[in-house]
Amino acid sequence: MSGVDAEVENTARDNRPWLSMRGVSKRYDGVHAIRDISIDVIQAQVHGIIGPNGAGKSTLVKIMAGAVALDEGTVAIHGVETHLQDPAAAQRHRLVLMPQEITIIADASLTDNVTLGAESARYGIRVARDCRRRTTAALEAVGLDLDVDAVAGDLSAVQQRLLMLARAIDRDVQLLILDEPTAGLGSEEAAVVTATVRKLSQDGVTVVYVSHDLSEVATLCDRVTCLREGQVVAVLEREELTRDRLIGLIVDVPAGSTVSPMGMPPGSAVSRGVARAGVALEKVSGARLRDIDVTAHAGEVTGVTGLLGSGVSELVSIIIGAARPRAGRLLIEGRPCMFHSPADALDHDVAYVSGDRARVAFPTLTIRENVSLPALASWWGRFGVMRRKRERTRVRAYLQAFAIRGDAERSFSSLSGGNQQRALVARLMAAEARVLVLDEPTVGVDVGARSDLWNTVKGLARERTVIVASSDAEELVALCDRVICLHRGEVRAVLSGSAITEHEIARSVA
Amino acid sequence: MDPSSERERIGNTVIRRSTAMLGPGGWTLVAAFVVMVVAFGVAQPHTFLNWGTAKDILNQAAVPVILVSGLVFVLAVGEFDLAFTSILGMSSGLVIVLISEDSIPAGPAIAVVVAVAALAGLVVGLLVTLGRASSFIVTLAIGSALSGLELALTNDTTIYNNIPASYGALTTTSVFGLDTQVWFAAGVGLVCALVLHGSRFGRHVSAIGANPVAAFLAGVRVRRARVVCFIVVGVCASFAAVVFTSASVSYTPGASAGFLLSSYAAAFLGAAAGRRGGRFTVPGAIFGVIWLLTLETGLTYVNAAPWTTNVVQGVALATAVMIAARGKRDNI
Q1: CA distance A62 to A481
Q2: Span A112-130, mean pLDDT?
Q3: What is the rounded CA–CA span in Å between residue A236 and residue A218?
Q4: Chain A residues bordering chain B (beta-carbon distance below 8 Å)
Q5: In angstroms, rounded to a whole number, what is the distance separating the alpha carbons of residues A277 and A479?
Q6: Option in B9, B200, B211 nearest A386 (CB)
Q7: A451: β partners
Q8: By the 8 A CB rule, do A283 and A291 touch?
Q9: Cβ burial, residue A378 (10 Å; 0-12/13-18/19+)
Q10: Is residue A21 within a helix (H) or strand (E), and if so which, with residue range?
């Protein structure tokens, strides 16, 4: 190495990239998930990656970790171009991706969890003492003061996350990629995780930090790359990082301009002056929720939104009877209810459908059977004997209302994704319930069909209470009369009327 | 949608309509049935192809038809039951002991047996649902326990004394040319078919079998339906026990075990034959019973070695399972 080169390297040492990507693209079925991304992750920094849903964050970090092959571009580690064919190869380069899900073995000890797959061994026989010593060191590095022989399943959620970090530390990790490490944790617990990340970074570990929680990103990160639609739209340095700046980057619509694509403007029901309480939760606490009070009015579409793990899915589960609150009351049209199952909830006129079709659809049954299932109680004759003709006619009417043509006797799986979603909303209509709960109703539905579905849902709200849980701000703006924003188990804001904008929603959840 | 796929779809609809009950697997099975009847007929034209043989097959079918009519419920709800033949054996022993040793009239004896079998089904159902244990292992264990009870009741001996002839006449009286046991089996099959394919409960059962989580979220009482399915199979097994012991006017130890594999073979043959591959149906299972019995009877008429029956049943079950599974994969 010549003297000039050495000098250049010296001056650059302070922000030498541990990993750099140049012109990286990845397509799925011809559609770009990410396109021409270049990024430098500086040694010993915490590098935040933010962006709205579908921006390509997951694809990007999976490529970094070798879990997904890139189509174009190069990845260099310490300036040397490297091809990582799988996560094992990445680990040999001291690069670890920590997934969102907690992947510990609940029945095993902390030692077994930390040393899993890399146990100290002599002649193939495990050396327990050495495993314990390594575990003690790794737990200390992440600030966990626990017995190494304790059972991992007994740990709290935040301790389990830290245990996963300890496993990475044990492998002498140099680049740690964290995908939503604080999702589902309360504020204090999340602070424990971020403090640990900060400490690791001070110890010299380079961190890539993917998160939706923009306040967290603003306080923790040294540098932030913002993605949108698969491309880098901004790179911010430490001194530029404020929460409001980040929100502005996430929301592609400028603050103040409300989009109401179809039909009646939001807020119309409020102006009609009907404000009967359809569903109310009083001082409800649960696994995630903390003492919340919310009301969804009859004749309105009430949106519920929040980041992953903020309590939205628990709120939905409580209303539909799939989970019971630890404390507090649920009132349906003013009457206190205690649901033991979704069947109970349906008896009280609460019906549910989700965009997660694996959870709600019956792919091997026919379209007719999928649509009519929750309606059976009210449609069928005495003694539960089916009236086939009546069922067929009614199902056909509902399918026609959603412009689903063809034979209702086909298997449900023969429908396209968008049509499956419409058929499921048809099921919700067929249930003839007074309270309708829709969970991410337009996931995987194309743009035109989305507007149709939104209009249908608004129409349904005229005589009913409709609750829409969604992480899609555009959907909430187009659909809702009122939006309840949850943050770490608490209600952070209730938006209504003209206050419902993508910007305001992003501000309230992040 | 482009015109060619539209045309294809309409074409498929026409084909589906014209074959309301049968899928491709079904046509194969029907064709195989015809081939085997013709083959046995050619081999033994005087003995095989006559009304007596048909009646014989139908009489033999009575017990398995009643068994599979119940078994289909458990399979449709997505569980397994290895205990129903033990319920059959225990009920057979109990009804004969009550009649023969305790001299209880047939009516009350049958009522007791049906109630005990329903209770056994309830216990199995509760263990499977509340215990969240695998139905495979739970029913294997309960089956062993019930076989023990059967042994305790009967001391492992054949019982044929002191059984009134009227008990035998219950099933072997000829009505409209067929024995009452055939009519009774047909009745049980019909009721089971109506309940499974024509009632709200039946729809809930197939929904649970297709996706239990989705059924739960859609408002189906999943646990209750599962328990009821196990009760249904228990009650059907006790009906089968009454027919079984009445037709032979005796109790024979260990006679029930042979029904386990043949019932599964019949249920899976029926599922493989169905229009939507892999769905368990009562008519399909009954068709499976007749199919297997015709083959077995034919084999005895052509003096095939006794071991051929086992081989045939095993091959039929394996083939049927594969056809049914293929239908399911196509649907994913």
Answers
A1: 38
A2: 82
A3: 10
A4: 320, 322, 341-343, 345-347, 351-352, 354, 359-366, 369, 372-374, 376-377, 380, 383-386, 388, 406-407, 409, 411, 413, 427, 431
A5: 19
A6: B200
A7: none
A8: yes
A9: exposed
A10: strand A17-28
What is the interface size between A and B, counted as CB pairs within 8 Å? 94
DSSP A239: G
Q: Do B199 and A407 touch (CB under 8 A)?
A: no
Average pLDDT, chain A: 83
Determine which of A340, A348, A362 to mutate to test the interface with B (most B C-beta atoms within 10 Å): A362
Question: What domains can you pick out in chain B, each with its CATH number?
Answer: 23-331 (1.10.3470)
Indicate the pTM of the whole model: 0.72
To the nearest whole Å, the CA of B48 is away from the closest chain A CA by: 41
Beta bridge partner(s), residue A81: A76
Rounded to 10 degrees, the C-alpha dihedral B122/B124/B130/B135 comes to -140
> Given pLDDT bands bounded at 50, 70 and 90, which one contains residue B313?
confident
Per-residue pLDDT, averaged over B111-135, amounts to 90
pLDDT bracket for residue A30 (50, 70, 90): confident
**Cα(A225)–Cα(A336) distance, rounded to whole angstroms?**
48
Is the pLDDT at A22 greater than 80? The verdict is yes
What pLDDT was estimated at residue A73? 92
Average pLDDT, chain B: 86
Q: CB–CB of B199 and A385 under 8 A?
A: yes
Q: Residue B215 in contact with residue B42, Cβ under 8 Å?
A: no
Closest residue of chain A to B201, computed from CA coordinates: A384
Closest CA to A141 of A204, A222, A209, A207: A204
Structure token digits, residue A447: 């743009």
- Check CB contact of B211 with chain A, cutoff 8 Å: yes
| Residue range B61-108, pLDDT digits in tens | 999 999 999 999 999 999 999 999 999 999 999 999 999 888 889 899
Query: Which residues of B fall within a CB distance of 8 Å from A377?
Result: 200
By C-alpha distance, the chain A residue nearest B331 is A364
The answer on pLDDT for A422 being more than 90 is no
Chain B CA closest to residue A361:
B214
As a whole number of angstroms, the distance between CA A227 and CA A217 comes to 14
